[in-house]
Amino acid sequence: MTTETLTTGRPSRNGRRAIAPSGDRMRRRLGGVVRHAVMICVVAVALYPVVWLAVSSLRPDGTIFANPSPIPTDFAWENYVYGWNALGSPFGRYILNSLVIVIGSIIGNLVSCSLAAYAFARLRFRFQRAAFVYMIATMMLPIHVVIVPQYILWAQVGLTDSFWPLIVPKFLATEAFFIFLMVQFIRGLPRELDEAARLDGAGHARIFLQIILPLMVPALATTTIFTFIWVWNDFFSQLIFLTSPDNYTVPIALRSFIDAQSSSSFGAMFAMSVVSIIPLILVFAFGQRFLIRGVATSGLK
Amino acid sequence: MSIAELRRATRETGRADRRHGRRIRLPDNRAALWFLAPFALGAIILTIGPIFASLYLSFTDYNLLQDPNWVGLANYERMLTDTRLHTALGVTLTYVVVGVPLQLVVALTLAVVLDRGMRALPFYRSAFYLPSLLGSSVAIAMLWRLIFGADGLFNTVLGSIGIESQTSWIGSPETSLSTIILLHVWTFGSPMVIFLAGLRQIPGELYEAAAVDGAGAWSRFRAITLPLLTPIIFFNLVLAAINSFSAFTQAFVVSGGSGGPADSLLFYTLYLYQEGFGAFRMGYASALAWLLLLIIATATAINFWLSKYWVHYDD
Q1: Which CATH fold topology does B46-140+187-310 show?
Q2: How far is B65 from chain A (nearest CA, A)?
């Protein structure tokens, strides 16, 4: 029936647009303008809180909440100076701590997840299907379920209040999402490449390092970006493991800001909030392609 | 991604060689051992081990300082009479049941509007994705706390359109949870991006044929878009439900770790945190962790069972 109606010579959706009478075209164009106007309004509402946060971080204390305008009028840079130094250490210290954990996690995820993904995608081994099903099941397992015994484990080896509990798990391929992402990517690569290398006498280590790894750079980039975002934003496990102020990361420091602040230092708090989200915005600006594709194809958040 | 893709990927696992029709290779058990060593170690030490360890601990009174004593079912009996736990379950369930569908409806609506050949799609997509990127950060949770405070931005904006309000939306038990649900809905960007990708997969000829048959926009949506999108809606639903059951940061920051006025922000994981890492009742916290696992497994199972009635699969 579908083909029948299509072959009666009626114009298709696109075709009709081209030959539509001018009144119809006008209405379409008007519809487009209205839709854009509505969408712009939705964007404005959605982004208003963030813009207001950025603008308010430059307003003098005491004027912040009374002023809902998203247009920057004041430039109280002293908020940033004050906020940077308001806690026990300069804010740079917390940024550095966060960066150490982020970079460690990125390296860990790249190494361990790509190794596991190669095995799932290219090797044949016992219990393979069972291990794969287990891997998919852990994608849906929130860390909250295992955090108590993990904490006890780290307490027994005396490593709570250090970065180890936050970095080591990434070297043990616990982020199943990335394994899955890479498995699917490797499966999309032609097997003839492996076969040719194997005929030349290459073992799996060489095939992995010299053939697969260079080809899977897009998957590695997606992993890098999402690891950055997740670990930078991670609050729960950092709150649990990091207790001494010297080890605080950006989210934990920011949170202690709220508890410690006198009501007069909102400007400084806003300023450091902005500092804390700038890296996310930068990653977003430069890694957008991988970011959007990662969300679209694998349901990463 | 969808459940169908997960199934397909599982079917493909370990049989790729036969598909190519080459002679069957010997298994690579030894190589696999090396490649999977980190994964296996992590699975045993950090996931499977802890799950069973917490099962054991849930029958003890462990408090980190003294050796655990076996207390039988005492922790589970306490659950039955623990009114704070019941509050936490109610709060979390409300958050999931209201917040998750609401966010998906907003995401789907905007995705459908954007998909209809709008120019500047990449701009809108990025703009809407930004809140998803920032939504789980402490900075935004803190901002929310200040926006919805008694003299916060929300009341200022209300005042400027003539509605005088002194309510602290965070501070009153009736409205505090709604502000957190609003924060969740605000991060509609990531499901929207997934829906947009799904909409791209729907063949244009279907719409053309329907238009020729005289179907209006709404019936095209009902008859074509919605059914073909159900696998993706379903997958989003499963993931969002799991994530929302374990939501923590926003409730913690907004309530200052306390659970809010009259425990109206006592999310399940927040209560687990208070019991385990505030009061160091590790035994009880382990029992709570197991209950969370059972709740999530049950919710996912219910989702799968219900999916038979509304999810449309091709294969």
Answers
A1: MetI-like fold (1.10.3720)
A2: 10
